[in-house]
Amino acid sequence: MSRERGGITAKLIGLLCFVLLLTAIYAVRHPLLRFAGEELVVEDPLQKSDAIIMLSADNFYADRATRSAEIYRQGLAPIVVASGERLRPYAGIAELMEHDLIERGVPKEKILRFAHDADSTREEARALAKLANERKWRSVIVVTSNYHTRRARYIFEKVFPEAISVRVAAARDGDFDPESWFEKRKGIKLFFREMTGMAAALWESREKTP
């Protein structure tokens, strides 16, 4: 009988500990989720560079274009690359990006439209690395959405030659606030999409390691 009571007591204590753990996690859920969102965002100290590279897939608000134009106006690079996916043989996203940049004060002659067929950040980085080599650039500033910066920096540092310095600048994103992303459906979608993308980037790098 005493053994049976001891078993019941142990189960009750275990259940109580489990409930207390869940309560503790619930109590600190917002700080934990905020920390997770902020960990996606990186911002390198920016220095004068050969080019600003604005990555494709800007959002509805053209936040990447806004950040790229801001950096250009600071005099940190003489040219902005509008890196956009080709949609037709005669047009693509790069043209739209150019329009957004011009609206934000970047002279048309200072914009380099760069059309490509990449369907991932890694493929886009490879295409841009080839362009950087052809232009003999030694330093670039890569502009992308805040939630995408950590993955973009990881990929570009893997893909670009060591001789080319890569610095990443975060553009605020109207759909992703690192401090409250978990409160909106779009923010949640972007967070989990980015986590999946980061896992894929790590796996792809692992496969290429001898």
How are the secondary structure elements laid out?
Layout: H1 2-27, H2 29-39, E1 51-54, H3 63-73, E2 80-88, E3 91-92, H4 93-103, E4 111-116, H5 121-135, E5 139-145, H6 149-159, E6 165-171, H7 185-207
Parallel strand pairs: 1-2, 1-5, 2-4, 5-6
Antiparallel strand pairs: 2-3
Helix pairs in contact: 5-6, 6-7
Report the CATH architecture.
3-Layer(aba) Sandwich
Taken together, the total number of domains comes to 1
Based on helices, strands and strand pairing, what is the structural class? alpha/beta
Mean pLDDT, nearest integer? 89
Assembly form of the protein: single chain
The N- to C-terminal Cα distance equals: 62 Å
Identify low-pLDDT runs. Answer: none
User: How much helix is in the residues?
Assistant: 40-55%
CATH homologous superfamily name?
HUPs
Strand content: 15-25%
Overall number of strands: 6
Number of helices: 7
Order of helices and strands: HHEHEEHEHEHEH
Largest sheet: 6 strands, mixed
Coarse morphology: elongated
CATH fold-level label: Rossmann fold
CATH class: Alpha Beta
How many whole angstroms does the radius of gyration measure? 23 Å
